Inverse folding.
């Protein structure tokens, strides 16, 4: 995506680019903000020179997007500020007032930022800028690989120079912080500051990050959020502090429910205040330090909102997407719906599909629309297409787009004993069929969670959307409103009779809503009461108690061990965890690489050698599996 010439690259980015081989693991990330042409580092460089860091008036066309990416900062920095020692007593480095850009814990009642005496945390404006940059880097492979805990890293020397910007390419690959330490010179690491949007892993054999940071002599690590997974939460922080590294965590400061006043506030109360302040800041450029910290934390949490929902709810994040006219119709009275939204809105939907593990529809959508539910991309992540049908009244014609499993995998979920001939016919077409004794949407979502899915996009009609909301399985809503009027009493609406509340007082509130202009359409995104806001989800996730690991890392007899996905607790046992294996005189990046390549071993075609080499060259196990399955589907013989 980026030309190999560095003539046009600003000097601060050449520090990462110069002398490195091009690779796909994020070692030379030159990404723009959100992939839309806005470079966060270049955007703030001029403000750094003038002592003003943050949001300029010449921000991108969407103010909400600009605040989300860069944060509403308009503060002066000391010219010789040192990010690795924000608490330095040097007058040239120690801010003298709030306008100099230091966020200090507050004690007054009602403040979102509570004092944490144990951490003694102090954040500078520079810290918040670099944390937001780490979030941007973490987004680099969204849509290219399956959802996983996204991580980005910025390494700053003790003189305040950015020495490396990295991100983790995919689940099980080299962590971002290890890449940053490998890129930078030893002198740059010693006494420097490492900025991570999320706490790294430190358990069950994944100690390389902490050991590498301590061995490199890094003086300070700034975390946007603690790792919410119970087996990882706080482990790396404690290990780093034990090794003499200063660790400051923004989420521990902002979402700390323990206030000094009598009657400690609950985690929910802290989340309520954070959401209230977030509402006050919506649509305005806010200059307070507390707001600056809150926006930065919100960006860190939203980067891994899939993971937070999985931990808090033990279910994937379920997003209901629909497009409707300005009078609230999703189709005409005849059922025709192509197209309500505009081209740019549909492109946004394709991007959302690529960022999800699966896309869910009902039988009615299959019968009426014959959708493809693909990302319309030649490369990148391919989500599973899921059809929920209690009656199995589905078209069995092989020309049905969803039964073309060479394009994307398909899964039908139904009840046992319902039209077994239809189930067998779909299985013969390569469609996976899962049947429950008694079908319910709660069981469907639990099953998707057990498969390791983190994010689910519901693109169903109102007949399934209503029951899904009523069952409490939908967490978030994405609504595209088109400037069109259809009318008609019989025209369908986004949510059918499955919900059907009788009083306005019973209406479900959609909270933490964002509005965005997408060409001629308006996109409204918000949380349903099952989640309320990203702050509430995070507070619930962090409230989960960690399950201690027995003995030397083995599971207790009563514990069920699952390790299908590399980001799970025992992910190192998964085929998808990248550990070099020397088998047959060749090095394979993971068990999955070897497994997929061996499908073509001994096949009497000249191109099989090329296919095996391509599989071996894939950066992540997921991409190796995707390539192997694709070739197997398109050329089964």
């Amino acid at each position: 995506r980026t030309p190999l010439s560095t003539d046009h690259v600003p000097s601060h980015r050449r520090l990462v680019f110069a002398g490195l081989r091009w690779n796909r693991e994020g070692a030379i990330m030159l990404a723009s903000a959100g992939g839309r042409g806005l470079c966060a580092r270049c955007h703030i460089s001029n403000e750094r020179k003038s002592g003003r860091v943050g949001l300029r008036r010449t921000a991108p066309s969407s103010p909400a997007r600009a605040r989300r990416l860069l944060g509403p900062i308009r503060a002066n920095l000391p010219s010789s500020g040192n990010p690795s020692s924000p608490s330095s007593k040097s007058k040239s480095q120690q801010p003298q007032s709030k306008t100099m850009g230091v966020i200090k814990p507050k004690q007054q009642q009602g403040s979102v930022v509570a004092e944490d005496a144990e951490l003694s945390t102090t954040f500078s404006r520079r810290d918040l800028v670099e944390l937001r940059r780490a979030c941007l880097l973490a987004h680099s492979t969204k849509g290219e690989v399956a959802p996983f805990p996204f991580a980005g890293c910025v390494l700053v020397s003790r003189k305040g120079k950015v020495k490396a910007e990295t991100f983790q390419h995919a689940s099980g690959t080299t962590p971002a912080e290890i890449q940053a330490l490998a890129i930078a010179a030893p002198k740059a690491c010693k006494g420097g500051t490492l900025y991570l949007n999320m706490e790294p892993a430190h358990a069950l054999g994944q100690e390389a990050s902490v050991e590498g940071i301590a061995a490199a002599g890094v003086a300070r690590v700034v975390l946007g959020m603690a790792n919410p997974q119970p087996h990882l939460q706080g482990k790396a922080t404690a290990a780093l502090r034990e090794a003499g590294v200063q660790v400051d965590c923004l989420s521990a400061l902002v979402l700390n429910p323990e206030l000094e006043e009598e009657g400690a506030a609950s985690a929910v109360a802290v989340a309520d205040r954070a959401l209230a302040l977030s509402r006050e800041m919506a649509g305005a450029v806010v200059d307070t330090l507390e707001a600056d910290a809150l926006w930065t934390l919100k960006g860190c949490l939203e980067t891994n909102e899939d993971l937070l929902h999985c931990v808090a709810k033990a279910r994937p994040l379920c997003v209901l997407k629909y497009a409707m006219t300005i009078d609230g119709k999703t189709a005409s009275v005849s059922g025709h719906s192509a197209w309500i939204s505009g081209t740019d809105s549909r492109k946004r939907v394709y991007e959302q599909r690529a960022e999800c593990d699966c896309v869910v529809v009902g039988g009615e959508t299959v019968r009426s629309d014959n959708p493809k539910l693909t990302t319309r991309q030649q490369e990148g992540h391919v989500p599973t297409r899921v059809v929920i049908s209690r009656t199995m009244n589905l078209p069995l014609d092989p020309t049905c787009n969803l039964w073309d499993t060479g394009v994307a995998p398909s899964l039908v979920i139904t009840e046992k004993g319902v039209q077994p001939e239809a189930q067998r016919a779909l299985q013969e077409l390569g469609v996976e069929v899962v049947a429950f004794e008694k079908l319910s949407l709660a069981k469907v979502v639990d099953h998707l969670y057990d498969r390791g899915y983190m994010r689910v996009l519901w693109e169903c009609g109102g007949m399934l959307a209503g029951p899904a909301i009523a069952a409490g399985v939908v967490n978030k809503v994405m609504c595209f409103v088109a400037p069109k009027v259809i009318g008609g009493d019989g025209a369908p609406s986004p949510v059918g009779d499955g919900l059907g509340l009788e009083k306005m007082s019973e209406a479900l509130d959609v909270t933490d809503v964002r509005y965005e202009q997408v060409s001629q359409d308006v996109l409204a995104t918000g949380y349903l009461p099952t989640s309320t806001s990203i702050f509430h989800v995070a507070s619930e996730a962090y409230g989960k108690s960690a399950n201690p690991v027995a003995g030397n890392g083995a599971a207790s007899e009563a514990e069920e061990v699952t390790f299908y996905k590399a980001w799970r607790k025992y992910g190192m046992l998964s085929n998808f965890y990248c550990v070099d294996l020397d088998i047959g005189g060749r090095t394979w990046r993971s068990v999955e690489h070897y497994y997929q390549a061996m499908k073509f071993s001994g096949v009497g075609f000249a191109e099989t050698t090329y296919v095996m080499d391509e599989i071996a060259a894939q950066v992540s196990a997921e991409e190796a599996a995707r390539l192997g399955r694709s070739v197997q589907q398109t050329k089964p013989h």
